[in-house]
């Protein structure tokens, strides 16, 4: 089963980076919200902190975790219809969250620089976006939680641990509720 997960995300290099360890990932509590599935993890269920540094497509240095209160990581692809459908609303929510000390980082998966640039321009994305063309960030995240395709949203707590995972099309209300649950919880 874990081998299938590794191949499904196109990250064959994960064989050497801990794919067999996925059996120990916490499952959390899941619920269906709109067109998405949300899983929350209690503080004691959260694994090790997510840590990565990269250069965004606009040249900004990006580090996760980065927000003083928390960080949201949005995994998407310019080729993904649900990602395009949520982009404007999620971008508006990202601006509101920034005012609360929550940083939002986009991670474009299985994409091209031209595709990402077009997506960013078309939808007015102003949060930093990293093109994960080598799959390194996906592998790192998949060692901490099950990734269910794109769009996937991860809400990190103050320590950088995954506190909430949302798989599927996201709306602003769901994102803001998920973040509030982590920040207030």
Automatic annotation (TrEMBL):
CDD domains: TlpA_like_family
Location, primary (coarse class): other
Protein name: Uncharacterized protein
MF-aspect GO terms: oxidoreductase activity
Pfam families named in the record: Redoxin (PF08534)
UniProt xrefs under Gene3D superfamilies: Glutaredoxin
Keyword annotations from UniProtKB, A to Z: Cytochrome c-type biogenesis, Disulfide bond, Redox-active center, Signal-anchor, Transmembrane
InterPro entries xref list: Redoxin, Thioredoxin-like_sf, Thioredoxin_CS, Thioredoxin_domain, Thioredoxin_ResA/DsbE_sf
Protein location: Cell envelope
One Gene Ontology term from the biological process aspect of the record: cytochrome complex assembly
A GO term from the CC aspect: cell envelope
């Amino acid at each position: 089963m874990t081998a299938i997960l590794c191949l499904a995300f196109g990250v064959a290099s994960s064989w050497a980076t801990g794919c067999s360890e996925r059996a120990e990932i916490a499952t959390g509590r899941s619920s269906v919200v709109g067109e998405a599935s949300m899983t929350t993890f209690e503080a004691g269920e959260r694994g090790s902190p997510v840590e990565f540094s990269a250069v965004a497509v606009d040249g900004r240095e990006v580090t996760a975790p980065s927000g003083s209160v928390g960080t949201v990581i949005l995994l998407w692809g310019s080729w993904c219809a649900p990602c395009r459908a949520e982009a404007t609303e999620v971008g508006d929510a990202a601006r509101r969250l920034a005012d609360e000390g929550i940083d939002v980082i986009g991670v474009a998966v299985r994409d091209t620089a031209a595709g990402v640039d077009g997506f960013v321009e078309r939808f007015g994305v102003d949060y930093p976006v990293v093109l994960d063309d080598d799959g390194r960030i996906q592998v790192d995240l998949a060692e901490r939680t099950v990734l269910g395709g794109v769009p996937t949203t991860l809400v990190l707590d103050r320590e950088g641990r995954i506190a909430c995972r949302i798989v599927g099309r996201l709306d602003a209300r769901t994102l803001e509720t998920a973040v509030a649950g982590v920040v207030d919880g």
